[in-house]
Prior knowledge:
Blueprint: H1 6-19, E1 29-34, E2 41-46, E3 74-76, E4 85-89, E5 99-103, H2 115-131, E6 137-143, E7 155-160, H3 168-173, E8 198-201, H4 211-232, E9 243-247, E10 251-256, E11 277-280, H5 283-291, H6 295-302
Parallel strand pairs: 2-11
Antiparallel strand pairs: 1-2, 3-4, 4-5, 5-7, 6-7, 6-9, 8-10, 9-10
Helix pairs in contact: 2-4
The structure holds adenosine monophosphate.
The site of adenosine monophosphate (AMP) has 15 residues, from strand 7.
Amino acid sequence: MISATVSQLVNDKFQEAQKNNNVVFKKLDSKNVKDSKTSMRYSVSLVPSLIEKPEFGQTDASEDPLAASEPELLVLDDLDGSGHLKLVLNKFPIVENHSLLITNEFKDQLSALTPEELMTSYKLITKMDNEDENKRHMVIYNSGPQSGSSQNHKHLQLIELPQKFIPFQDTLTNGKDHFLPSIKDEPLQDNKVSFAHFVLPLPEESEEVTEDLLAMCYFSLLQRTLTFFQDWLNETPDLVKSYNLLLTKQWICLVPRSNIKAKSLNVGFNALGYAGILLIKDQESFDEIIETPTIVDDLLLECGFPSTAGIKPNEYNY
Ligand code: AMP
């Protein structure tokens, strides 16, 4: 069982940590823009404090900052009563109350999510969404060296979506009933955006969302995601499996990843980028994106794979 007051616990801890400078959080500017070609909306934030956040490979392999959490950041050492996950504030938050779900025992960030981890994430999201109807939450999982992850200790991230922000996955799933993919029904892809992504609408009633259902959704999307690595291995033999998972109360989405950073502009993405939430460390790139939002679709493609919308899978696919 997740505590009925989990939102309050997170919020109290965050206010305290911010007051005492236990979290490194400085957002200078934030703007919403829309790409007129793809209709994708972007929430673009200039967050120079992210320069202090260690990037992938920068933490000494023997160090594990997520293992022994600072007491000032620890919200709950047993999130759901199973003893498996703790809830900890992110030391380098990108929004208020940004938290991490971290396995108490070390597990590798490359390992697949378990049905229990998915269910706990979903329950946490629904609990927090239900507590305040003006707020929506998303859990993300960055897995693999090109996914934008920076720590090897298994963890998911919980964020509140920016107010009134509409990720493109909302529009894609709007009015669609839940289904599991089959030969006839492929996962949803928005044919206006250029990068591959696989989305499934979840049942509207949260009582219908079970551990088994979430696991079936995740593994069927993971299967399609892994197919990219199989298909591209001849061209790029060094390619290592990397992907982002995004989960809200309404949908689940997986995005296969080829690069952590774009080469054409000094911008990197994790799962948040593939919901349209862009965290930019320098003013120059921020200004360029605000002025020409259409470049973002190219950047996201550069860090992902080409969309397969409308292409039927063949017998060589997983
Ligand atoms: P990822 O980048 O997806 O691997 O997520 C790891 C997260 O851990 C990042 O968002 C960091 O901001 C955060 N982080 C790094 N060091 C610490 C720490 N000592 N305590 C809490 N969070 C941390």
